[in-house]
Each structure stands twice: as structure tokens, then as C-alpha cells.
Amino acid sequence: MQEKMTVPAIRARKGGPKLKMVTAYDAPSARIADRAGADMILVGDTLAQVVLGYEDTLPATVDVMIHHTAAVARTKPRALIVGDMPWLSYHISVEESVRNAGRLIREGRAECVKLEGGRKRLPAVEAIIAAEIPVMGHLGLTPQSIHAMGGYRVQGKQVEAARGLLEDARALTEAGIFALVLEGVPDVLAQMVTESIPIPTIGIGAGRYCDGQRCNTFSRMYNQAHFPPKPRPIIWTKRLLINSVIPSETRNKGNGNRLLRYRCEPGIDAGEKDCRDRLRKPGTGARVEFARQWLQRSYRLATEKQEPRTGDSRGLPGHDTLRGCREGRCDYAAGA
Predict the structure, then answer these.
(1) More confident residue, 229 or 134
(2) How far apart are CA 263 and CA 283, in angstroms?
(3) Is the domain of 82 the same as that of 224?
(4) Coil, strand or helix: which one is 119?
(5) Is the same domain home to 51 and 118?
(6) I need a surface site. Which of 66, 168, 184, 300 has the fewest CB within 10 A?
(7) C-alpha 91: how far from its chain's center?
(8) Which of 97, 73, 95 is nearest to 87 (CA)?
């Protein structure tokens, strides 16, 4: 029998085998996730959408979260149980934040809590940790801020926003969180954050460079049941187009490179090999790599408070090279 996953065990997986976090809201789904080998089971406030039928996560309350977290805990899983703190449970005062986190631990039998937000949530994070309750952070696309963000939108695309997210990640790490969820951010930014902090990062639509991935099978069923098929937004990564939303069929076999199910075009299922074949056109890989490296360089220069320059003076191909790629005569090789 495998050993029980604990907070120190999760923290020790930084840079090691990829972590697997699966969302579950009741005893049957918790048993399925645990038998499948999940390292963490997240009882997320998304249950307001995918279980209770609301349009967003905001109607979830502390009592509702305790009810579902306790159902998961009664299965006594090997996986670490992560209780999600709902909206307004840690926003009003530090005292109420600690009280609500304590209820999730005492009544819901969670083994740690997760909350959203960056530096503005530091007082609550520090107080909860001081009460001997482990905390997992959450940055990027934070569903509890849906109205402030104007909807479910990718975060950190602008240089200043990326710099702020990186500073938030470092501040939360210094405050004592044991892991950090990165949701809906460019994979380049997720890679930078992962390399900048000594704790594991868990990606939700944040690319393959995180230390682990979160999967939500309920969300997949909910989307199929409530919304008609339509093209999905897609994002570029090196040589591949992947969904900006991770499908539930995702399987983590520990190698970290096949955590995502690939799509070549919106609404068209395809395996990784088919994607590579379709993208194997003259100049396609170089165009993707050029865009990705330029974005990465812009982030790094912004972090160093320098201004990025155009052209190839910093080791990247200039506009003439990119124009040649579009015309199918690109000689640029990634990493050259």
C-alpha cells in the first residue's frame, strides 16, 4: 500500500515526477480519483457550477464546501485533500479567514486549504499558516474575480501584468504557501514562475512547464451537457496547438510531456502525431518558436526593468526572417 500524501511530500516533488491533482466533489468521484493515482484531490468551489448548476463559482458558501469536502474525506483517500475557500470566506477580515479555514479542516476534514489572490491576500495567508493550516495559492485566472476581470480571460499576456503575477508568486512563497496553482496564463509565464519559486506549481491551462496539472472530469461533463459544440480558443506552444482548456480525458503518465490532449483545429480531435504532421509545413515550427521566444524575452526584460527591442540584435530572428517563414522559405532553427 502506498504511503499517504502529505504537504511535505507534495513540496518535495518540486522538479521531480509530475504532480496530479484531480477535482472531486463526492465520495464516488473521490474513490475514482484516488484509485487512478491522484496525488491531490481538490474539492473546488467550481462545484457551484458543475454540481449545483449555477453560472459561476460565487454562490458556493463555506457550509456547502464543508458538506462536499467531508464527503470526499470519508473515503479516506491516499491523496492529499485540498479544501477550496469560497468567495468572501477570506476577504472580510483576518479573523474570519482563520475561522473559515479552521472549519474546513475540523468539520470538512480537509488537510489543507486553497485560496485565490496575490499580495492583497497576504495578511489572510500568513494568519492561516500561523494557525498551522497549510495553504495552497492560486494566481492567474481566478474565477472568484470573474466580474473584476470581465469574464474568463487569459491573464498575464501584457508585460506589466506578467511582472505583477511573478511578484505575487514570490510574495506568496515567502509567506509560506506549499504549492501554487497557475490558471489561464501563457506557458512562457508559467515556466518563468515555476523556475523562480522553490515550491511546486500546478497548471490549469498554463502549459506543460508546471510541476503538475489539475484535471476536472465534472467540468467536461458539464460543458457537454449545457453548451452546444463550438470552436474553442486555442493557444500556441512550441510546435503544437493545444486547448486553452484542458480536456477531462487528460492522463498523466509521469513523463510531463503528455499531460494535455492535443487539438490541431478548434472542434477537431486529433492525437499528438496528427498535430505534428499538420503543423509540419514550411516555416510553421519556426514561426511558433519565434513568437514564443520573443514573448519570453519580453517577459524577462520587463522583469529586469529593461525595454525589449525589435529585430535580431538580442539573438532572435528579425522581421525579414519571419516574413520568409510565412512565405515557406524559413531557415531559422529553434535554439540556434
Answers:
(1) 134
(2) 20
(3) yes
(4) helix
(5) yes
(6) 300
(7) 22
(8) 97
C-alpha cell at 86: 469560497
- Based on its alpha-carbon atoms, the radius of gyration of the chain, rounded to whole angstroms, reads 21
* DSSP for residue 53: -
Is residue 114 located within the same domain as residue 213? yes
- Is 19 within 8 Å of 11 (Cβ atoms)? no
The answer as to whether 272 is a domain residue is no
Domain carrying residue 301: 284-326
Considering the domain boundaries, does residue 13 fall inside one? yes
Into how many domains does the chain fold?
2
**Which of the residues 111, 116, 183, 289 is marked catalytic?**
183
| pTM for this entry | 0.70
Q: Which three cell numbers mark 317?
A: 530572428
Residue 261 covered by a domain: no
| Residue 122: Cβ-neighbour burial (10 angstroms; 0-12, 13-18, 19+) | middle
Residue type, 241: L
Q: What is the pLDDT of the chain when averaged over all its residues?
A: 78
Q: Is 160 a catalytic residue?
A: no
Specify whether 90 is located in the same domain as 213: yes
The per-residue pLDDT for range 24-63, each reduced to its tens digit, is 999 999 999 999 999 999 999 999 998 999 999 999 999 9
Cα gap 164→170, rounded to integer Å: 10
Spell out where 220-277 has E strands: 234-237, 240-243, 263-265, 268-269
Contact (Cβ atoms closer than 8 angstroms) between residue 42 and residue 84: yes
Q: Which residues pair with 20 in a beta bridge?
A: 213
In a shared domain, residues 29 and 161: yes
Q: 322 or 64: whose pLDDT is higher? A: 64
* Residues ≥6 apart with Cβ < 8 Å to 70: 107, 108, 109
Which spans in the chain are helix H? 7-11, 27-35, 47-50, 62-73, 94-106, 122-130, 146-149, 159-175, 187-196, 217-226, 272-279, 284-303, 319-326
